[in-house]
């Protein structure tokens, strides 16, 4: 039977054996993640010692699009890389929550918006050699104001910029958040290939 999640070019290709976990130990956990250590067997048959970071949330993000082709981004300080990051509204949905409920909440909390129309964009595996984290992103339009409710640790700036300017800044390397970069390029692809309403696609592409 054909696997719907398999690329067309992979059909019929033989695959090596899967990795095998021969035992699991929890090294650390908190409300957001768990670190597990495994005695493992590689596809080659070699023994391995493997550590996996397992988030307790699904990563969610949304690119909010106004009718004039501008998009909403948020800016905030990030701890891990000690940098200021411009990105689309993002957050996490607990594993027992519908990710779509989580992303709608994040759109309101971070950007002060609700949306009438939604379109799935991407499901991604983030750093799949060291973590089982999954990210899901959407496009949203038909925007209207909603009350904000940022996390107590967040000071968030909200800007509205032309989509083509976002693409330019990704190209210059000033916007580097992986979910934002991937979703922006998927948005461009969707606009170019007729997967978005024509008026919205024309507004997004602007001067391109």
Note the main attributes of this structure.
single chain; 208 residues; alpha+beta; Nucleoside Triphosphate Pyrophosphohydrolase; 2 domains; four-stranded mixed sheet; 4 helices; 10 strands; 22% helix; globular; hydrolase activity
Can you walk me through this structure?
- With 208 residues, the chain is α+β, with helices and mostly antiparallel strands.
- It is globular and about 55 Å long.
- Helix 3 crosses helix 4.
- Strand 8 (113-125) and strand 9 (134-145) form a beta hairpin.
- It contains 4 helices and 10 strands, in the order E-E-E-E-E-E-E-H-E-E-E-H-H-H.
- The chain folds into 2 domains: 17-55, no CATH class; 57-205, Nucleoside Triphosphate Pyrophosphohydrolase, CATH 3.90.79.
- The strands form 3 sheets. Strands 7-4-9-8 form a 4-stranded mixed beta sheet. Strands 1-2-3 form a 3-stranded antiparallel beta sheet, with no helix packed on it. It has a 3-stranded antiparallel beta sheet with strand order 6-5-10.
Residue-averaged pLDDT, rounded? 94
CATH topology of the largest domain: Nucleoside Triphosphate Pyrophosphohydrolase
Q: What's the domain count?
A: 2
Number of strands: 10
Number of helices: 4
CATH H-level superfamily title of the largest domain: Nucleoside Triphosphate Pyrophosphohydrolase
**How much of the polypeptide forms β-strand, as a percent range?**
35-45%
- In the CATH hierarchy, what is the architecture of the largest domain at level 2? Alpha-Beta Complex
Provide the structure class. alpha+beta
List low-confidence stretches.
none
- Shape field: globular
Instruction: State the distance separating the first and last CA atoms.
Output: 42 Å
**Arrangement of strands in the largest sheet:** 7-4-9-8
Helical content (DSSP H or I, runs of 4+):
10-25%
Rg, Å, rounded:
19 Å
Order of helices and strands: EEEEEEEHEEEHHH
Largest sheet data: 4 strands, mixed
Kindly provide the name of the CATH class of the largest domain.
Alpha Beta
